[in-house]
Write a structure and sequence with these properties.
The chain has six helices and 13 strands. By secondary structure, the protein is α/β, with parallel strands linked by helices. A six-stranded parallel sheet has the order 3-2-1-4-5-6, with helices on both faces.
């Protein structure tokens, strides 16, 4: 349970599977949660243990937002099934009511990128799917840890366990290709650190590469070459 100094008032627009899951998790963590949906039946997904509030109404309607406590909200999350509803409600919460932490789910990655540039944090469903596929395709040579940037995520962070001895050691610079990918962290004996110039990376250690999405295939081939004793 969080204490009073860290408890946040969070509004969630949309009580589908994602919205209900977020609401239950935040409620269980001790936060003050209000969920908005136009269909009363959607609130059944919250379960009997849910201790937050439910508000029936349109997520971008200002009166509905006020009833849900938007004027005191620390965060607003829009996860309805419609891009327009999510964007309009998110921008209303941010621009009209001054909610600083606003997130909107967007199905169209191109629109997501546009709204990111206007200050609305977006989660694009297509991006989730893309990254799930990348994890599957690269599971032998690397693991996708996260993506950075709007829309599809312009940069992908990949982790890879280097082959065991007698391979290596390698200088950190040997893992970078200017403008395409670079080594951003090394994990050894359970601790991850940012490398320094000319640092040596040893066999069996884990490297973390930040890769420009357009260079992913090339980066995968480079990682595979490390396992085959080529690379550099």
């Amino acid at each position: 349970m969080t204490d009073a100094t860290t408890t946040k008032h969070v509004l969630i627009g949309g009580c589908g599977r994602v919205g209900a899951g977020l609401a239950r998790t935040l409620d269980e963590a001790g936060h003050d949660v209000a969920v908005i949906d136009r269909d009363d039946r959607a609130f059944r997904r919250l379960g009997e243990a849910f201790g937050g509030r439910t508000v029936r109404g349109i997520v971008f309607d200002r009166t509905t937002l006020v009833r849900a406590g938007v004027e005191e909200a620390d965060a607003f999350i829009a996860v309805t099934s419609g891009d327009n509803s999510n964007i309009v409600s998110a921008r209303t919460a941010r621009d009209h009511f001054g909610v600083r932490n606003v997130v909107a789910r967007i199905y169209d990655p191109q629109r997501a990128e546009i709204y990111e540039r206007h200050g609305v944090t977006t989660i694009a469903t297509a991006r989730w799917t893309t990254d799930a596929i990348l994890v599957h395709l690269m599971q032998r040579s690397g693991r996708v840890e996260t993506t950075i940037g709007p829309g599809e995520g312009d940069v992908v962070v990949i982790a890879h366990d280097l082959p065991p001895a007698p391979a290596g050691p390698w200088e950190v610079e040997s893992f970078s290709r200017q403008g395409r990918w670079m080594l951003v962290a090394v994990t050894r004996t359970g601790q991850t650190t940012v490398p320094v110039p000319r640092q040596l990376v040893q066999a069996s250690e884990r490297i973390h590469l930040a890769v420009q999405r357009s260079a992913l295939r090339e980066a995968e081939e480079f990682i595979t070459s490390l396992d085959e004793g080529e690379g550099s």
